[in-house]
Structure formats: structure tokens, C-alpha cells
Amino acid sequence: MDPTAQFAENLRRLRLAAGMTQERLSEEAQMDAAEISRLERGGRDPQLLTIVRVARGLGVTPSELLSGVE
């Protein structure tokens, strides 16, 4: 699977497992909700700082977000 698509799938799965909306995650990650949406759709390759912010917002490790990315 494409790395961006795998990240997007992981992000959506982890967000839903946490019971969070995209808006809530954007607040927790201190990011714009539109950015979370783009990441979940695979419309953007995330930078390292973005991965760390999203992971913190979800309460997971960055490696969990990158699981299966090769």
C-alpha cells in the first residue's frame, strides 16, 4: 500500500477507536480541521511535526500512526 494511504487509514482507524471527530482531534492536535481531513483522505504527505502532533492529539505514539508504512 502507498505510504500516504497507509498513514491515512491508520489515522482514521485510530481516531474512530478513540471516539473522536476530526474537529475534536484538530483541537487536541492544535491543527486546522481541514488539515486533519486532508490527511485522512491521503491528500497530503505528513511532515514529522504533523505526525507527532496528531499522535499526541490521539494519545498514541507516532509509530502507531506509521504502522505498516514501508
From TrEMBL:
<dbReference type="Pfam" id="PF01381">
    <property type="entry name" value="HTH_3"/>
</dbReference>
<feature type="domain" description="HTH cro/C1-type">
    <location>
        <begin position="11"/>
        <end position="65"/>
    </location>
</feature>
<dbReference type="GO" id="GO:0003677">
    <property type="term" value="F:DNA binding"/>
</dbReference>
<dbReference type="InterPro" id="IPR010982">
    <property type="entry name" value="Lambda_DNA-bd_dom_sf"/>
</dbReference>
<protein>
    <submittedName>
        <fullName>Helix-turn-helix domain-containing protein</fullName>
    </submittedName>
</protein>
<dbReference type="InterPro" id="IPR001387">
    <property type="entry name" value="Cro/C1-type_HTH"/>
</dbReference>
